[in-house]
Design goal:
63% of the residues lie in helices and 11% in strands. By secondary structure, the chain is α/β, with parallel strands linked by helices.
C-alpha cells in the first residue's frame, strides 16, 4: 500500500512562493537601508561592465586598426582600463560586504524570532512535534536563509546587467540585437520549468533532513535505553535508510541543477555568440566591420548571458530558501500558543488559596482526561493527589500551572480567576518541583539562580541550606561553583532533586506544586529530601502528587482520582476507614515495603 504523500514532498505553486517571499522580505525591513545601498552599487557595477568593453573598442577601432597609436595613447588607455577595473573591484567589494552583513543580521534576527516564538508555544505543540524537526528548523533552515538573500542581489544585479548590455548591444547593432532576443523565450521556459519541478525536489530533501535530525536526536537522548535493550542494530538500519533517502533526494537535486542550470545557459550563450559572429560575417561581405565593434558586441553578449547563468545558479538556492522559509514561517504562524492571561491582568497572589470549580480538560479536544474536578486548598494546607497512572493527577498540575488551556470550569487563586494574574506573577508565586530534576550546563549557583539577576549569592546559599542541599554542596570541589555537565549527569537523582528544591524555594513561592518529587530518589539522600520537603511546605499551600502514600499521611486533604474523576477525598485516616480504592493502594504498598 502506498504511503500518503507528505505535504513537504509536493510541488509549490507560484502563488505560494510569492507569499513566502513577500513575508520573508518583511522580516528584512530593519536592514532595508543596507540592502538598498548594496543594490544601488549593483547599478554602478553594471555600468562599469558596459564601459570597460567600450574602452577596448575605441582603442582598437580608433587607434590600433588605423595604426595611429602612440606610446602616450597606449599608456592612457592602459591606465584608463586599469582604473576602470580597480573601480569595478571596489564597487564589487562594498556591494558584497554590505549586502552580506545585512543578510547575516537578517537571518540571525529570524533565528531569534523563531527561538522566541518556540517559547510562546503551548505544550501541546511540543507533544506533537519531534524535537529533531524543531532543531532542524532553528538551525539548518535559518542557516539556508543567509544564502537565500543573495538570490535577490543576483537577480537585481542580473537585471541591471541584462538591461545595460541590451542597450549597449542595441547601440552597436539593432538588427543583430534583435536576433539575440530569440533566445530569451527559450530561457524563460527553462526557468519556469525549473521553478515548478525543483520546488518538489527541495521540499522532499528538506523533509528527509528533518527526519534525519529527528532520528539523531532520539538516538542520542535515548542512548542508555538503546544499549540496555540492544537496539543498536535496528536503529542503525533505520538511520541508514533515512540517510539513504536523504542522499537520494540530494542526488535528485544535483541531477536537476546539472541539467537545467549553467549547462543550458552556457549552451544558449554559445549559440548566441555563433549567431552574432555569423551575422557580422555576412555584414562584412558587403562592407567592412570594425574589429573593436565585434569584440565589444561579443563582450556584451557574454555580459547579457552571464548574469542569467548566475541567476539560474541562484534558482537552486532560491528553491532551497523558499522551502526553508516556509518551514520557518510554519512555526512563526503556529497558533498553538501557551495559554494567555487577560490583557489587563494585574492581580497579585497574597494568600495562596487554590480552588478548582467543576474543571474539565482534554488534550485533544475530544476525550476528557479531567471530569468536573472540584476542590479547595486553603492557605498553608496540603492537598495530595493520588491514583493509578493515567488517572489525571499530572493534568491537574498542567492546567493549574497554565501549561495547557482549560475551557470548562474555573480555577481560582485567592478567590480570583487564574487568568487575572500576569504570567510572571504565576511563575514567581507558584513553585513547581518535577519528578525529573532537569539541570542545565553550568554550575550549581547558576542552576539555582536560573539567570535571575535579582537573586544574590547569599539568597542562593540560604535556599540551599533551607532544603538541606548545602550538606552535599559543601563537599563538592568549587562548592556552589562546582561544574554541572549536561542534564546534571554527574550528580545523583537525589542531589539533583535537592538542587531543584533550592531553585524553587529561592523565589519564596506562595504555592508549592510537587509532581511526584520523591519518586526517583536514592536512599542516601532520602532523609534529606523528606526534611527539605517538610521545610518547604511550612506556611505554603501545597499541591502534591505522590506515589509513596507514606509521604502524604499528614496532608489536610487527599484526593483519589480514577479516569479523570475524584472518586474519594479526605484525610489519610478517613480514607483508610472507608476501605475503598485508597485503602487498597495503601495496603498494597505497605505489604510490599
Amino acid at each position: 500500500m502506498e504511503e500518503p504523500q507528505s505535504e513537504w514532498t509536493k510541488s509549490m505553486s507560484i502563488k505560494e512562493q510569492t507569499t513566502i517571499v513577500r513575508r520573508l522580505l518583511s522580516l528584512a525591513k530593519p536592514f532595508r537601508k543596507q540592502f538598498i545601498f548594496a543594490i544601488i552599487l549593483s547599478c554602478g557595477l553594471s555600468t562599469m561592465n558596459v564601459l570597460l568593453p567600450k574602452i577596448i573598442q575605441v582603442f582598437m577601432d580608433d587607434y590600433l586598426t588605423p595604426k595611429t597609436a602612440t606610446n602616450a595613447i597606449i599608456l592612457y588607455f592602459a591606465f584608463l582600463y586599469l582604473a576602470g577595473i580597480i573601480m569595478k573591484s571596489v564597487i564589487w567589494f562594498f556591494q558584497w560586504s554590505i549586502y552580506a552583513n545585512a543578510s547575516l543580521k537578517t537571518y540571525q534576527t529570524i533565528r531569534i524570532h523563531l527561538f522566541e516564538k518556540l517559547h510562546t508555544l503551548g505544550m501541546r505543540y511540543f507533544d506533537q512535534t519531534p524535537a529533531g524537526s524543531i532543531v532542524s528548523r532553528v538551525t539548518n533552515d535559518t542557516e539556508t536563509l543567509f544564502e537565500f538573500w543573495f538570490v535577490f542581489l543576483a537577480v537585481i544585479t542580473g537585471i541591471f546587467s541584462v538591461v545595460a548590455s541590451f542597450l549597449a548591444m542595441y547601440a552597436v547593432s539593432p538588427s543583430i540585437t534583435a536576433a539575440c532576443l530569440f533566445f530569451l523565450p527559450i530561457l524563460l521556459v527553462i526557468i519556469w520549468y525549473y521553478q515548478k519541478y525543483s520546488s518538489k525536489v527541495y521540499r522532499g530533501m528538506r523533509e528527509k533532513l528533518s527526519q534525519l535530525n529527528t532520528k539523531l536526536n532520539e538516538s542520542i537522548s535515548g542512548m542508555s535505553i538503546i544499549q540496555q535493550f540492544r537496539q543498536e542494530k535496528r536503529l542503525e538500519n533505520e538511520f541508514e535508510q533515512t540517510n539513504q533517502e536523504y542522499l537520494n533526494a540530494r542526488f535528485a537535486m544535483i541531477k536537476t541543477n546539472s541539467l537545467l542550470l549553467a549547462p543550458v545557459i552556457n549552451l544558449l550563450m554559445a549559440l548566441a555568440v555563433a549567431v552574432v559572429l555569423s551575422l557580422f560575417g555576412y555584414k562584412s561581405l558587403s562592407k567592412p566591420v570594425e574589429v573593436g565593434m565585434i569584440y565589444a558586441f561579443i563582450s556584451y553578449v557574454q555580459t547579457f548571458f552571464n548574469p542569467m547563468t548566475d541567476m539560474m545558479d541562484q534558482l537552486s538556492t532560491f528553491q532551497d530558501g523558499i522551502v526553508a522559509g516556509s518551514r520557518v514561517l510554519k512555526i512563526l504562524d503556529h497558533q498553538e500558543v501557551a495559554p494567555a492571561q487577560q490583557k489587563d491582568a494585574h492581580a497579585e497572589i497574597q494568600e495562596g488559596k487554590i480552588e478548582f470549580r467543576d474543571v474539565s480538560f482534554s488534550y485533544d479536544g475530544q476525550h476528557n482526561v479531567l471530569n468536573h474536578i472540584s476542590f479547595i486548598a486553603n492557605p498553608g494546607e496540603t492537598v495530595a493527589l493520588v491514583g493509578h497512572t493515567g488517572s489525571g493527577k499530572s493534568s491537574i498540575i498542567n492546567v493549574m500551572m497554565r501549561f495547557y488551556e482549560f475551557y470548562d470550569g474555573q480555577i481560582l487563586i485567592d478567590d480570583r480567576d487564574i487568568r487575572e494574574y500576569p504570567m510572571e506573577e504565576l511563575r514567581r508565586k507558584l513553585g513547581l518541583v518535577l519528578q525529573d530534576a532537569f539541570m542545565f550546563y553550568g554550575d550549581i549557583s547558576g542552576n539555582i539562580r536560573m539567570l535571575n539577576s535579582e537573586i544574590t549569592d547569599e539568597q542562593i546559599k540560604n535556599a540551599a541550606e533551607f532544603v538541606q542541599a548545602d550538606t552535599f554542596i559543601q563537599t563538592l570541589p568549587g562548592k556552589y561553583h562546582a561544574k554541572v555537565i549536561e542534564r546534571g549527569a554527574s550528580y545523583s537523582s537525589g542531589q539533583r532533586q535537592l538542587i531543584s528544591f533550592a531553585r524553587t524555594i529561592v523565589t519564596d513561592p506562595k504555592v508549592l506544586v510537587l509532581d511526584e518529587a520523591t519518586a526517583n530518589i536514592d536512599t542516601e539522600t532520602e532523609a534529606l529530601i523528606q526534611e527539605g520537603l517538610s521545610r518547604m511546605r511550612q506556611g505554603r499551600t501545597t499541591i502534591a502528587i505522590a506515589h509513596r502514600l507514606s509521604t502524604i499521611r499528614d496532608a489536610n486533604c487527599i484526593l483519589v482520582l480514577e479516569k479523570g474523576t475524584i472518586v474519594e477525598r479526605g484525610t489519610h485516616d478517613e480514607l483508610v476507614k472507608q476501605s475503598g480504592l485508597y485503602y487498597d493502594m495503601y495496603r498494597l504498598q505497605k505489604n510490599n515495603s
